[in-house]
């Protein structure tokens, strides 16, 4: 006796089911049929069919359940398979006529899940490819100077037509980072066949620069490129320090912002406008110190907690309300900062704002 597995393959499923039912009755003298209710194109694999046949052949114990008569092992096995159920031939006529709309809904749901999974895989692959392309792209000099780390070493061949790969291979032949005990943090290709190299410390940077100049200066240009230095204004010192003393205090009292390798140039120390006994300083720092100092909001100079501001000065004329000059030297007509008309701010009666400011 062999169980009949019905494949719901096309619109003629009804005829297939009825034919299979008749065949099952003839071969097994038992009323029943196994139906797989998942989609139109699913099937039972060969291993499962063989397993069903062996169970049916080797099992003599018969279990009766409701309107069916079949071996208990077969029933349990069929019922344990998701989407597979057992019905007798009398029940089959009314139950097996599956709703085509229901099947379509199941197939559509499974298809949407598969498409969503595929879309996620494709999106992840695109992101990975873009990241790879970005990491391998050539840097511009503007990208170099925008770098917030310490200065880097830039190497170019005298012949600008040489590729960056050839330059890098030549550097490795002349200066082995392992033998020189150099800790590299960045190696990038730049335009005109150049290579950008950054080390983990200023000492390693200097060592690399010296070695490159010793062995490659005949055919290559070697130079140190630093990031753009920015200016901060430090306000609140109760005494006027010398530039060297102020730098020492800043580095030793603010280890969360400064290090001994940080760029810190004291440009100017002078009293504030409101109080001659309170001093301020204009300090030139690298991008890393600039970001950390502004984020902290204050720095300690001895026991003085001093406020930190961006030292960018914007000159604005209060006569014409344009920029880059003061009203003492303004030759333009008066302009209201609210409505843009030719009258003073105190005489403005406008209820709406109209900006007419232009940059010089």
Provide a descriptive summary of the structure in words:
The protein has 360 residues and is an alpha+beta fold. The protein folds into 4 domains: 5-98, no CATH class; 141-225, 2-Layer Sandwich (VC0802-like), CATH 3.30.2130; 230-310, RRM (RNA recognition motif) domain (Alpha-Beta Plaits, 2-Layer Sandwich), CATH 3.30.70.330; 316-360, no CATH class. The chain has helices at 13-28, 46-58, 72-80, 89-95, 100-136, 141-145, 164-174, 202-216, 243-253, 287-296, and strands at residues 5-6, 33-36, 63-65, 68-70, 84-87, 152-157, 184-190, 194-199, 220-225, 230-237, 264-271, 279-285, 298-301, 304-310. The chain has a 5-stranded antiparallel sheet. A hairpin with a 2-residue loop joins strand 13 (298-301) and strand 14. The model is unreliable at 1-11, 27-70, 88-100 and 134-149 (pLDDT under 50).
């Amino acid at each position: 006796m062999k169980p009949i597995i019905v494949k719901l393959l096309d619109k003629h499923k009804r005829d297939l089911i009825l034919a299979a039912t008749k065949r099952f009755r003839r071969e097994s003298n038992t009323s029943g049929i196994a139906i797989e209710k998942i989609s139109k194109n699913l099937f039972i694999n060969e291993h499962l069919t063989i397993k069903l046949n062996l169970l049916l052949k080797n099992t003599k114990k018969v279990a009766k359940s409701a309107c069916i008569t079949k071996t208990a092992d077969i029933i349990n096995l069929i019922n344990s398979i998701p989407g597979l159920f057992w019905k007798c031939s009398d029940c089959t006529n009314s139950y097996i006529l599956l709703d085509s709309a229901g099947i379509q809904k199941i197939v559509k749901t499974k298809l949407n899940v598969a498409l969503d999974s595929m879309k996620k895989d494709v999106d992840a692959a695109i992101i990975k490819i873009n990241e790879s392309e970005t990491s391998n792209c050539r840097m511009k000099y503007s990208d170099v100077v925008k770098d917030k780390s310490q200065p880097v070493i830039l190497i170019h061949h005298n012949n600008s037509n040489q590729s960056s790969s050839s330059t890098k291979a030549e550097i490795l032949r002349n200066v082995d980072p392992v033998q020189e005990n150099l800790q590299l943090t960045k190696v990038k290709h730049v335009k005109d066949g150049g290579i950008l190299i950054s080390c983990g410390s200023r000492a390693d940077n200097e060592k690399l620069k010296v070695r490159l100049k010793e062995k490659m200066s005949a055919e290559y240009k070697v130079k140190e490129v630093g990031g753009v230095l920015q200016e901060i204004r430090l306000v609140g010192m109760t005494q006027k320090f010398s530039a060297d003393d102020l730098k020492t205090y800043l580095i030793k009292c603010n280890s969360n912002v400064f290090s001994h390798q940080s760029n810190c140039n004291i440009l100017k120390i002078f009293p504030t406008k409101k109080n001659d006994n309170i001093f301020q300083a204009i300090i030139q720092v690298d991008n890393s110190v600039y970001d950390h100092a502004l984020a902290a909001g204050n720095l300690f100079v001895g026991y003085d907690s001093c406020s930190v501001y961006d030292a960018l000065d914007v000159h604005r004329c209060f006569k014409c309300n344009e920029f880059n000059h003061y009203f003492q030297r303004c030759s333009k007509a008066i302009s209201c900062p609210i409505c843009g008309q030719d009258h003073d701010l105190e005489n403005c009666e406008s209820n709406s704002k109209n900006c007419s400011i232009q940059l010089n």
